[in-house]
Amino acid sequence: MRREDDIRTNVRESYAKVALKLENTQGFSTLAPSCCNPKDNQNVSIEEISQKMGYTKEELASIPNGANMGLSCGNPQAIANLKPGEIVVDLGSGGGFDCFLAAPKVGKKGRVIGIDMTPEMIAKARRNAEKPGYEQVEFRLGEIEYMPVADDTADIIISNCVINLSPNKRQVFKEAYRILKKAGRLAISDVVLTTALPESYLLDMNLYSGCVSGAISIEEYKALLKDAGFTNISIILKDESKEFIREWEPHHDLENYIVSAIIQAVKKGNY
């Protein structure tokens, strides 16, 4: 069985390559082992990929250049219902895509905190955060299993196709519960298993970094959230996602094993 440290190292190195490679690909997808990219077609634009995930052209045009890296399996913004003044924490924030979209929704009195364990991603996101209009956005280097955020900080946690990459999801949800305020919300896009993966897929480290081998079942997802203390747990499968999942690794029939899902939950308590 692969050690957690080996998995984290592989994921970190893979996404560092994505961050560096995309500096020179002029908005087109990359073949580096990573989530949510068509592997056999480098002529597919990142904007096209993101529109398939549910982002509008207006949203994509509103963020800084380079923030959108095409690493999505859905649009957590669509379910987050962000309000002015709220504090948002984005788990696995990458180049800052969802953070920059959240910023105008929470306004100047709100805050957006992005967490990512890849220094190259944090550097890219911080450069974009220096641009006018994003004073309420900050990025912190850290692992989502041990978040650099104080207890009872966030009104809402968002995440986009990242939790599947963690080798210790139980710890991620414990941490998420810790940093949320009472009645705080979880709004996640992620991939889940619809049936067990072949052993060869489980052993393929590139498929782990590609958001496949680390996926868990709906039942396990719900159990981990419940064990962490969450209530009002909802997992809605997006069957239409099988169309773009098929493109991630065309030679692995992934659409028969995983599907994108919208995951929501609430921390116990009242404001």
UniProtKB/TrEMBL annotation:
Sequence intervals crossing the membrane: none
The species this protein was found in: Lysinibacillus pakistanensis
Residues of the Methyltransferase domain: 83-229
SUPFAM superfamilies attached to this UniProt entry: S-adenosyl-L-methionine-dependent methyltransferases (SSF53335)
Superkingdom per UniProt: Bacteria
CDD domains for this protein: AdoMet_MTases
A matching Pfam family: Methyltransf_31
Record protein name field: Arsenite methyltransferase
Top-level EC class as recorded in UniProt: transferase
This protein's UniProt keywords: Methyltransferase, S-adenosyl-L-methionine, Transferase
Alphabetical list of Gene3D superfamilies matching this protein: Vaccinia Virus protein VP39
E.C. designation(s): 2.1.1.137
GO biological process: methylation
Protein family per UniProt: Belongs to the methyltransferase superfamily. Arsenite methyltransferase family.
Swiss-Prot/TrEMBL catalytic activity: arsenic triglutathione + 3 [thioredoxin]-dithiol + 3 S-adenosyl-L-methionine = trimethylarsine + 3 [thioredoxin]-disulfide + 3 glutathione + 3 S-adenosyl-L-homocysteine + 3 H(+); arsenic triglutathione + [thioredoxin]-dithiol + S-adenosyl-L-methionine + 2 H2O = methylarsonous acid + [thioredoxin]-disulfide + 3 glutathione + S-adenosyl-L-homocysteine + H(+); arsenic triglutathione + 2 [thioredoxin]-dithiol + 2 S-adenosyl-L-methionine + H2O = dimethylarsinous acid + 2 [thioredoxin]-disulfide + 3 glutathione + 2 S-adenosyl-L-homocysteine + 2 H(+)
GO molecular function annotations of the record: methyltransferase activity
